[in-house]
Amino acid sequence: MRPLALLPTSALAGMVFVLVSCSSPERAALKTLQERGIEPSGARLLSTVEEGENELLKLLLQAGTFPDQRNEEGLTPLHLAILKGDVNAAWLLIDGGADRNAAGPGEVTPLSLAVASGETAIADRLLNAGARPEGRTPDGELVLPWAIRHGRWVAVRRLLQGGADPHQKGADGSPLLHLAIENATRDHVLQLIQLGADCGAVNGEGESAVVLAIRRGWTDLIPALAIGGADLNLADREGMTPLVRAYREGQMEKFRQLRACGARPVPGDQVARLTQAYQEGDGERCRMLLSFGVRPSPSLIRLTARHEDIDMLHLFLGYTEVPAGMLAENCVPGKEPISSLLLAHGARPNEARTPFKGTALTRALDSGSRRLATQLLQWGALPEQNSELGVSSLHLAAAQGHADTVRALASAGCDLNAPLPTPVPTGFFSQVRGSHLRWLLRKDRRITPLMLAVDSGSIPTVKALLDAGAKTQVWTRTHHVWPINLAAGHGDIPMMRLLLGKDPYREERRVRVDLSDQKLWVYDGMGSEIFSTSVSTGRSGYRTRQGTFAITHRYRDWTSTIYHSSMPYFQRLSCSDFGFHQGHVPGYPASHGCIRVPAGKATQLFGITEVGDRVEIVP
Question: Which CATH class is domain 321-499?
Fold first, then answer.
């Protein structure tokens, strides 16, 4: 390299330019300060910030002036810039190397001061520049709890994102979440949870964040708090856990939330609590305990049935089985809704109340609950069962005139002609209507369901048996009593008509006999006279019986079994020992009780009438 003296003048000028242009910003700043007579000291930097001379501040910082000189109060230039709200000065200081974490009096850092002063931009710049998210505000509280208490949520979020300790507590010892629940909105609390605040912390009274959230009515925060580690089973200041309080106050939704999140059972006898809640009429508490896993006892199920509390019985049966024997217990008149509900909940229709008592079906029949007996058969009750009275279901249903039950039993395959057992159990006698049949129960055998139904007087029941194939041509063994004899004994014209194959109620004609006038008339179904004749009825000592009868038998040729005399065109009335027949009619009563009709007229009468026709004999 040649000496400078040997270089051309142009080259020398260029070299001088290069040397000047390559001088550092620090040297340039120092030169400028020197030219202005300003000493680059920390004290001058402090006063520059106080006076708001940002251009001079920039020169001082460029000149390498110490940026953290403290004033008499212990504040750094950065503290002063933040207090003045001078964003530009603060940024110059931050970029100029000022200590971002310098703690002033009371551990107030630039960051905590910026947050407390509402200088969000400065706080954000500090955090971006690496300031630690700590320090205390001028009133002595840690910056993060202070920000939560005062609703500085932008700062809260940035502090937590910047690594602030989520386990901090406020000046009163309240954890962050507790402060937020007491001072912020529900959404802010949720944000705090999501940002990692300590959900398991408790306040000075030992209460969890769950207790406080519930107190504010924010039950929907329970799942988030539980996931975050909150203890759902900590008691509040009154010694009650959230679950216990929800239970006592009947707050169903809160109770469900707590249970779903794992709150432990309410201490004590849960079944007794459920019974008590029911007895007090507190349905909400009942539902809580049921959802909590408590199961109603058989005695409680029976209690609701005795109270005929359908709604609660339905609720309880949704959580347990029908107690053994309960269906049979409730198969009595007036309890049909209870029994129907029990069946719907899976009660077994063939289960006995006790080993020595009848099933639900026989219980229903014994008690006279017709509709329930039919329903039980539809639910699968076995038809061939003996009731507590010692007879089959069919015999009992027939005697009671339970048409629907008889129809169901017939459809289920019961023997429609099976006779009652011999001897007939005395307990069954009370189910029979007629004294004649009760006498037969003691003295005779082969008494069929049809005979029992006829005696009951139930046309639908007899019709059900006949439609299903019950036999009318069956009689008792000893006294030869037929079903129609029992109907006749009751004077039951519709029943006799039914047994004779006629419509029980739609009569096509009727016969009227007047004992005083010794006359007989036949009327059609509309009441119009279609036949009349003179007759001769029973003389003194053999008076013809009065009343209403039905023609039950007709014989063109008949010989009296009593008087051994011929009685052509004989028509027996109500299975008795008298009726119409051809005979001598002298114009006054002359017979032994029968109704004599003149020759010719007897033939006409025989041709007009049929079995089942009603006959009225009046004085």
Answer: mainly alpha
Q: CATH number of the domain at 509-618, out of 2.40.440.10, 3.40.50.1970, 2.130.10.10, 3.40.50.720?
A: 2.40.440.10
Residue of 331, 414, 575, 594 marked active site = 594
Q: Which residue has the tokens 């969890």?
A: 208
Structural domain boundaries of the chain? Answer: 24-165, 321-499, 509-618
Q: Between the CA atoms of 245, 246, 251 and 256, what dihedral angle is there, to the nearest 10 degrees?
A: 180
> What is the maximum span of the chain, computed from C-alpha positions, in angstroms?
191
The single residue of 314, 581, 584, 592 carrying the catalytic annotation is 581
What strands, in cross-sheet order, belong to the sheet with 509-514? 529-534, 519-524, 509-514, 614-618, 547-555, 570-573, 579-582, 595-597
581 is catalytic: yes
Domain 24-165 has CATH 3.40.50.2300: no
> 24-165 and 321-499 share one CATH topology?
yes
From 535, 550, 524, select the one nearest 608 (Cα to Cα): 524
Q: Are 76 and 108 in contact (CB under 8 A)?
A: no
Identify whether 22 is a catalytic site residue. Answer: no
Q: How many CA atoms lie within 13 A of 444 on its CB side?
A: 19
Q: In this structure, are residues 435 and 491 in contact, taking their beta carbons and an 8 Å threshold?
A: no
The span from the CA of 71 to the CA of 608, in Å, is 141
DSSP states of 229-256: T--TT---TTS--HHHHHHHTT-HHHHH
Instruction: Dump pLDDT digits (tens) for 410-453.
Output: 888 889 999 999 999 988 898 898 899 999 999 999 999 999 99
Helix (H, G, I), strand (E, B) or coil at 504: coil
pTM of the model: 0.55
**Is residue 587 a contact partner of residue 577, using CB atoms and an 8 Å limit?**
no
Q: What is the pLDDT of residue 19?
A: 36
